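Take our chain:
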Amino acid sequence: MATKEEVEFLYDLERLLVTRRIEKPKGSYSTKLFKKGIDKIAQKLGEEAVETIIAAKNKKDAELIGETADLIYHMLVLLVEKEIPLDRVIQEMMLRSKK
């Protein structure tokens, strides 16, 4: 189970990405993605999804953990670009779990 600190990290990252989307500091990978727009962000998310699947099939935990981290990061970038708060996704998951 994730600790409160680990969960809070995702919200901290979300806030950082919102700031990067607005301020677009030079040298930031997130800025590069935001400047290229939704098509590039979606492409990267798709690439990371495929890499995560391949890592899972390779049965190397460290590789799967790394690719999953990349996947979650790019998903957060997509959500921030679309101005959808992480909370809305979590709320949807909670609703679905009650069905």
Observations:
- The helical segments are 4-23, 29-36, 38-58, 61-81, 86-97.
